Each structure stands twice: as structure tokens, then as C-alpha cells.
Amino acid sequence: MGVASKTILLFTIAASYIFSSNALADSTVNVLLQEWRMMSDKARVPSGKIKFSVQNRGRETHELVLIKTDAAYDSIPLKPTGGIDEEKVGVLIDEIENITSKHSKAMTVNLVPGNYVLLCNMVEMEPEGKEEHYAMGMRIPLVVE
Predict the structure, then answer these.
(1) CATH of residue 125
(2) Whether 114 contacts 137, CB under 8 Å
(3) How many independent structural domains does the chain possess?
(4) Residue 2 lies in a domain
């Protein structure tokens, strides 16, 4: 194999690595949880296999619930007992429960095009009253194209 052929081969291998790394980066959604907000580095993703990498930077335990729904992400009705009814608002895709303070967890799911909501649906009784994480702002929309 000549020098030119080796150079082309190395370039092809490098380009394949860069392309696959970018494809992997595009299919990962980084989510940050903290009292009383949720943030994501992506609002839109392509359909297919998507990895959710979730970090809890808050003091309290949180969760990440992924629901496919056409309901507005910030106006899902609450149950009288607190939180939302995950089964009635749309299709519950998956969830990561009990993400404790300063810890990370991940999940990978196969998503079809549509509208989704990422939320924390934890409800806790505190001395000052009920803490409903969703109602307090822990929700964001996600569009799968």
C-alpha cells in the first residue's frame, strides 16, 4: 500500500470516527435537575435511539419522567392528591426514579416523531405544605423530529 493510499485510509478512518462521535453527541440529551427547575441542552432531537444523561445538582431527590403528549408542557392538570396522572396525559415512555442529590443517572429510549414532556412528578409533604415538583416548575418540552 502506497503513502497516498495509507493517507486516504487514515483520513477515512478519522472522518468516520468524527462523524460517529457527532452522531452520538446529537443523540444525547443532557438534563440538569435542581430545585425548582429543569434544563436541557436540546429542545429538538431526531427520531431514533436517544440517551438522556441526567444530573441532579439540587439538594432534594428528583426523577425524570418522559411522556409523549400533545398537552402543553406547563399546563398538565394536577391530581387532587398531587402530581400529574402520568398514564392519562399521554403515553409514559420511561422514567428514572430516585436521582439523589449530586448524582447522575441515564436512560436510553427509542423515540418516534412527536411532542414530549420531560418532568419531575415527585410530591412530598413538608411542614409548610405539599411540594409538587411539576407544579413548581420542573418540566420542559421536547420535540422529536
Answers:
(1) 2.60.40.420
(2) no
(3) 1
(4) no
Candidates 7, 88, 106; CA nearest to 51 is: 106
34, three cell numbers: 435542581
Q: What is the pLDDT of residues 16-52, one digit of tens each?
A: 444 444 444 468 999 999 999 999 999 999 999 999 9
Q: Is residue 41 part of a domain?
A: yes
On whether the CB atoms of residues 26 and 41 are closer than 8 A, the answer is: no
Amino acid at residue number 40: S
For residue 83, what are the CA distances in angstroms to 32, 47, 60, 90, 132? 20, 28, 16, 15, 6
Please report whether residue 45 resides in a domain: yes
pLDDT tens digits for range 86-101: 888 999 999 999 999 9
The pTM (predicted TM-score) of the whole model is: 0.80
**Cell numbers at 48, concatenated:** 431514533
What cell numbers appear for 86 in the block? 402520568
pLDDT of residue 16: 45
